[in-house]
Amino acid sequence: MNVMRHSPVDRIRAELSEVAALDADSARTMPPAFYTSPEFLEVEKEHLLRRQWLCVGHVGEVAKPGDYFTTELLEEQLLVARDLKGEVRVLSNVCRHRGNLVAEGKGNTKRFMCQYHSWTYRTDGTLLRAPLMEEAKNFNPKGCALPHLTSEIWNGFIFVNLDGTAEPLGPQLERLSGIIHNYHHELRNLLYTGGDVWGTNWKSLTENFIEGYHLSATHKDTLHATTPTSLCCKLPGEAQYTGYRSYYNPSVPDRGPYHPDLTDDEKRNSVMGVIYPCFLFGFATHYTLYMTLRPVGVDRVALKWGVLGLLDDPEHPEVVKFVELCHAFNAEDREKLETQLKGLQTRFFATGPLAPADFEGTIWDFLQYVASKLGAQVDLGDGAAG
Q: Is residue 334 a part of any domain in this protein?
């Protein structure tokens, strides 16, 4: 069969199926089109990302009743709010009248009012007021609530499923919850959030975050002395996540403050990984680092990232020091990912072998996951080919 007659999407899906059929000893990367094809990105949006659990933030961003923030996810305008009864909701941020935005930015409020015609909603999304609509024959206030999106909170992180069909997330993460139990992430306070747009593909950033192979080379001045590549140890992969333990150099003192439940082994490593498809986590002994990814183009990804810890003062010198370290190694990753994108756009790279499991086995798990959702063996229905 001459695959050159097929569309770019057909060829990428066929490659995914080939990867899925390989054993781990033959693990290799995907070809550049996997990261650079606009047509394949549209398939990912429709048949992967909209169907899976995507993280939009942390409950610490909506700590009090009336707190809210807005975000965009795959062209959907979302409003994340803690209603006046204390429940966290993910709502459509689109007025039910003429489709304008109901809220912008973040803040605290008792109600949301669309600035176009003053339609006003309670913090739970129900319509409170629609000026001069009483005489409209087809107006039903009960039918004009802001739509609720399927959402779930796991360890304080707010996940949304745009198409509402995903299986509950918590049961799929039971083993991961056990792995991180003694870190007691639920007791950690939100200390920092930031955001940016990087010039890379969302899958490239995901793969970079979850592998320890680059720690000593890319981060030789920031992370190598503490978490060298040679001490990485892969965790068994699961259907909904993969990860590895990034062990600390024996010469590095214990990193605190940490919870006393940590075992001697747990005091000496961070748990790094991804909840598929694109929530990135690092549970260290003293802090949690996370990234939520929002693909905005084949060569751009918006990310929101944050830091949590047992300390409760964002201005504490130790917190400031750790956030500065995060900024430093994020900048190093960004530089490498943006130059990698240039390399992936050439004609002289096809695929390459992956490093052994402890160093890049997580990438292999991630590719197997994508193949299970988008490979040629999966019936995506009409419109899946480009």
A: yes
Residue 167 lies in a domain: no
pLDDT score of 1: 40
Same-domain status, 364 and 324: yes
Distance CA 282, CA 245 (A): 9
* Paired tokens of 248: 């600390």
* Number of domains, the chain: 2
Q: How far apart are CA 218 and CA 220, in angstroms?
A: 6
133 and 258 in a single domain? The answer is no
SS3 assignment, position 176: helix
How far apart CA 58 and CA 306 sit, in angstroms, is 9
What are the percentages of helix, strand and coil residues in the chain, rounded to 5? Answer: 30, 25, 40
Do 75 and 177 lie in one domain? The reply is: no
**Selection from 272, 54, 50 nearest residue 152 by Cα:** 54
Structure tokens at 70: 């807005």
What does the pLDDT average to over 29-48? 97
Q: By the 8 A CB rule, do 182 and 259 touch?
A: yes
Q: Please give the helix or strand (H or E) that residue 46 lies within, else none.
A: helix 38-47
Beta bridge partners of 327: none
CB atoms within 10 A of CB 194: 13
Is 45 within a domain?
no
User: Do 233 and 99 share a structural domain?
Assistant: no
Residue 36, burial from CB neighbour count under 10 angstroms (0-12, 13-18, 19+): middle
SS3 of residue 257 by DSSP: coil
Mind listing the pLDDT tens digit for each residue in 131-152?
Answer: 988 888 888 888 899 999 999 9
Q: Are strands 150-154 and 157-161 parallel, antiparallel or unpaired?
A: antiparallel
Full residue range of the structural domain in which residue 145 is found? 54-152
Q: Could you read off the pLDDT of 217-242 as tens digits, one per residue? A: 999 999 999 999 999 999 998 999 99
pTM over 0.90: yes
Query: Do 55 and 71 contact (CB within 8 A), yes or no?
Result: no
Q: How many CB atoms lie within 10 A of CB 17?
A: 15
Asked whether residue 200 is assigned to any structural domain, the reply reads yes
